[in-house]
Specification:
The structure holds 3 protein chains of 3 kinds. By secondary structure, chain A is an alpha+beta fold. Helices cover 28% and strands 25% of the residues of chain A. In chain A, the strands form 7 sheets. Chain A has a 7-stranded mixed sheet, sandwiched between helices. In chain A, helix 10 (339-346) packs parallel to helix 11 (377-395), helix 11 runs parallel beside helix 20 (721-733) and helix 15 runs parallel beside helix 16. Chain C has helices at residues 25-32, 88-95, 105-118, 124-130, 142-159, and strands spanning 3-10, 13-20, 51-54, 57-60, 73-75. The chains are: A alpha+beta, B alpha+beta, C alpha+beta. At the A-C interface, helix 1 and helix 19 of A face helix 2, helix 3, helix 4 and helix 5 of C.
Chain lengths: 755, 286, 160
Amino acid sequence: MTTNGNGLRWVGKRPVRPDGVDKVTGRAQFGADFTLPGMIVGKVLRSPHAHANIRSIKTEKAQALPGVKAVITAADFPELPSEIEQAGEVVLNFRDMSRNVMARQKALYDGHAVAAVAATSIEIAERALDLIEVDYEVLPHVIDVVEAMEADAPLLHDDLYTMGVEPTPDKPSNVAKRVEFSIGDLNAGFEMAEVVVEREFTTKPVHQGYIEPHAAVASASEDGLCHIWCTTQGQFMVRYYVSRLLGLEVSKLRVTPSEIGGGFGGKTVVYLEPVALALSMKCHRPVKMVMSREEVFRASGPTSGAHVWVKMGATKDGRITAGEAVLKYQAGAVPGAPIGPGCMCAFAPYDLDNVKVVGFDVVTNRPKVAAYRAPGAPISEFGVESVVDELAKKLGMDAIAFREKNAAREGTHAAYGPTFGEIGYTETLRVAKEHPHYQAPLGPNQGRGVASGFWFNIGGASTAALNVNEDGTTTLISGCPDIGGSRASLSMMAAEVLGIDVEQVRPTIADTGSIGYSFLTGGSRVTFATGMAVIEAANDVVRQLRERAAKIWEIDVEAVVWENGEAKPSGSNAGDFEPLSLSSIAATAGKTGGPITGHVSLNAQGAGPAFGTHICDVEVDRETGRVTVLRYTAIQDAGKAIHPSYVEGQIQGGAVQGIGWALNEEYIYDEDGRLENPGFLDYRIPVASDVPMIDAVIVEVPNPKHPYGVRGVGEVPICPPMSAVANAVANATGLRMADLPISPPKLLAAITNGG
Amino acid sequence: MRYLSPHTINEAVAALADSDGDVKILAGGTDLLVQLRAGMKAPGLMLDVKRLPELRSINVEKNCFHIGAAVSGAEMGEHESLKGSWPGVVEAMELIGSTQIQGRATPGGNLCNASPAADSVPAMVAAGAICTVVGSEGSRDLAVEDVGISPGQTSLGRDEFVVDFRLPERPPHSGDAYLRFIPRTEMDIAVVGAGVNVVLGDDGVCVDARVSLGAVAPRVLLVPDAANELIGRKLNDEVLEKLDAACRAACRPIDDKRGTVEYRTQVSGVLARRAAVIAFERAGEK
Amino acid sequence: MVKTHVNMTVNGEAVEFLCETKATLLDVLRDELDLTGSKEGCSSGDCGACSVILDDRLVCACLVLGAEADGGNVETIEGMADADQLHPLQQKFLEEAALQCGICTPGFLVAAKALLERNSNPTETEVRYWLAGNLCRCTGYDKIVRAVMDTAEEMKGVSK
């Protein structure tokens, strides 16, 4: 038996993932692959207008078309009161969610669902959509966040009064919320500063860009029992949201998650699921709905576009004395931009005494934003990390040395509230500084940029079950969809505790009827939080195995130890017994007390924050404005990498998403507020030939709150790339690009006008 | 919608003539199927021309290459002698989309889709390619630059289609090149494209040239003013600067989601310069 | 509705079906033949998730009409493994964690197989450009490109 030299047999190794063969052979069932007997198809009618009153919807003709089994509009959904509800880490307002799922009275964006049909074929469903008559009164619209905040801007909701302002305004506006926090004395901080940099930035909404479109099959039986099969980051989330949206008892709805073809936060909400179920409830046939790519872009959540203002000051010896930011984030059609985390993360990597952050959550005539990898953080951190870079340059300091001088460490009181425990930010900076990349020579028109990133990570509610099978193999059951390899990491932790081969742990992701509640896959929480549930379940199984051995040997349980997958007497005093393997205990479990199962539900606390530092080299074509990323190194504190390959994968994938955000990705609207690029042709996510290898370097500063030291890893890698690229472009050209994306026309104009 | 896959040109012409114009010709399908799926096109007849032998081969006759209109980009790229004589034409075709698209996309489809941003068209125009067009009235020749007249519109009659492209005989010291600008490295539609085709004398002086631009006007442009800056000259910075200016002067672009007027205009000159350098180098090597 | 009678070979097996003109080869594979390994990510040839090999050419099944494939020979992800022996690319993708969510994986594997059949020793740049029509949003392409190159290296060793 080999271990890693730290006594660990599986943690830190790279076994083949348990769901791998299904995925390389085409066997794995994703959302759109599921079918049921008697199934029909549903299609959504979407608003062609960015903003319009819906005077009436006439569905009679569609209803009368042969083959049409159901037609629904907002009238088929219960009208819900506007109430803010805290559900785990998420703030919900089911009235707003309901209005996003199906427009009520008003269409709020191009692509907003206004009606849906279920029919026996796609062709009939599409013809039926053409027969639905919607009488729209087109209204002026607003796309840009700054314009939406102006006093005379077209108003999306006449009952939206800015929260967080005292007294509450007496007039409605598009500003849903204002948040503010501050520490220290900002004015004093800026007075101490010898160098001040102040700059405005803009970022465009960018889409999560998962390759699998949303898909759901819903079936409602005559007795009111309902079942949804769908691609989602959280089957329990779908169950609760759909139950609330349709007024169902939670116990009457069962949700089975399919394999999920990417989410990145975008599948933490519902779109088709309640619509498909509402259709099925009308006709009692299973209804399948799959979004086209165009629908994904027009109607599912991107992240916010934003306007960011940052001001920072520092002394000549390189100490940051004050940081101030004003962040304006688009929420899309209904309130709920990730402004809170945007504000909190902005200055989190730095040990600052004087900070003030003000944020605004602003509605605009765009699809409602959804979470996207470290929601809100990449936007504010783009501004801050760009200004940090400028400050370092003005001070004549090395970009990494300047960050090291101001870096948050264990004991640093973060501006957003907590005091950091053991964190690995300075470790990432040290490794970056020593990495050969940082010293490598650069050619003409090339530049190197450095940027860091921060994300909280979360824990939360998770359930895991571990069943010992008759032959001593085990079945591990998780309630969190596996979006990037968590079945591998969970199995490895179970195998580690049990001391058995990882192949003998067979993981499954269960439906809502088969496992206890688990919060969704998001917040970089599964390997941490569900991992803790798995470890505790495995510990419980070990305890039972020791008890069974004790019973067989007729000795005290305290005299039995579990080592390398076997029960052994704890010492010579305990007696002289041949070790009992897991399989031999399992074989006699019936006689020693029945099935051996571990089942743990917990609310995991103590998720360790994640920090990363990225180094990016670019070359700029000064005649076309093209930026080519030549070399990229991403260093990140993972706490402890359970399966390093999948940790690296998260870092590499996040970095490339960030490169796309930095250089090419954006929503383009025409003057009528219609999305002009709802497809992968003109919404340009990076292709293989756009990027170099991404050198992912894992730093391990263990999280003391997790048995193996795990920190979440999925989100922080998307925080640094935008500023790493922009800082590299600044070093290559002398131009500070503050508006994303740094697309060729924009950069060429800047070079022509000022380079 | 019916599907028809004729085996002879006469059958195809007859089907076109009978269709009252409610027909789309399926060559590669990489644009057409997308338009069909998006509901932009709903013809009564889909006429697949890929089983017509005349459209499916690359031949050399009297020192001229004939490229069937429904030959795929991948097949053009694998044709070594075509690539040797007309590297610019082949590169332009190969720039269209991904490897997967290359397995389907055809020069005939690219031309008749009539997008001003079609990559193969400026290269064909610079090459001086002539299409053979057939219809009920028989067959006729048409210069490639005269086929696409505005976005989505061709000058072909309702019962006509393109059979093949004929490239002119290649004298010694000739070379062509096509460059396009896209934001990514692959998979985008050209923001600007520039094709340059030159014939040099033994002394390196340009004796003949054609310059074309894509995506800077409602149709692909042949730019004689730009070619005139090259003819009678050797390549140097001053000539390149004049070529650049002539190209910029010819541009009549629009602002759209893929680029601005200023950007397209500026980059058209840059690409023409860079393409000219490559074309001269290639010509010099032969 | 006019339907075309189509015969083709899929992964070595003869199949026969009636096909509406607008049905793509992808529709046929997924809905008629229950071969759901080829994925629909865009329906416009931009993502490569439906990559299949048609008559020795790598194509997007969403850009081929079912009717056009009459007489054709189609290879899909479902035919890539030989009995219980995974193709070396499939094996290498597993060993090197070249997939995260897995939705793009069938398309990448089919495309990479087509590459290695033409070019047994591709450079990194050649791999990246050949696979530029296959979008992956999870991996940043790093491990995919490495897995393809490592497979090429390994297959060379075996064939010697």
